[in-house]
Structure formats: structure tokens, C-alpha cells
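Usage

Read records sequentially. Each one opens with the input sequence:
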Amino acid sequence: MRQLPFRTPRRLLVSTPASRQWCGGAIGALGLLLLSGCTSGSAVQQVNSELGSLRTRVEELRRSQETTVRELARTVSELKDLQSAIAKVQRSVEDPSRQLAVISGRIEETENKLKSLRESLEELKQELAKRAASSPAVPET
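and closes with the structure output:
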């Protein structure tokens, strides 16, 4: 962007459809004045009137832009708050899921140990039954 000999707020340098329309209108009005070659008092008054209305329009556009910037800043702030809330909800959903996975793993481990204990118990019963069958009966006294 070309450096101007004076400081101009950046927001005034931004090209928008409304600012292009305004500039086009102002250039057109000045062009007509110069082409007509008419510099009478009434023409000057007309140009001054048009410039006054253009200044008013520029001021309205500036206020509108400032309002839009404030609303955009508020919207961005709300969006950040929503993103934070979504992240918090996701963490709260993930935590029980992890806990459930840990509990499921422990249950499976416990079931495997119980199965192993039952098999060992069954082997001991069979061993006791074999010993009882192979040992001679002891007479009662």
C-alpha cells in the first residue's frame, strides 16, 4: 500500500463496496464540475452541498463499520467461550469412557483368574477322588 504524506487511520484505507461507491460519486461530481467549466457561485454551492452530504455519508459508514467491528469482537469472544465449553464437555465424556475401559479390563482379568482357580479346584477334587479310591479302607474302632 502506498505511504500517504499524512497519517490516515487504516480503517479508512480499507476498500469496501460502500467506500468505492462513495469515491466514485465524489469523483463523478468533481469531474462533471470540471468538464462543464462552470465555476459560478451556484455551482460552488452545489459542490459544497454535495461534499457535505458525502461527508455525512462517510461519517455514517464509519459509525456502521465501528458497530460491525464491535459486534464481530463480541462474536469472536462468544465463539472462544463456546470452544472452551465444548472442550470441557469432551473431557468429561472421555473420562468415564477411560474408566469404563479400565474396569472392563479388570473384570476380564478377574474372570480369567476365577477360571484358573476353578480348573485348579477341579484338578484337586479329581486328585482327592483318585487317592480316596486307591487307599485301603481304614476299619472303624
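Summary fields computed downstream for this record:
- The longest helix spans residues 41-134.
- The two ends are 120 Å apart (CA to CA).
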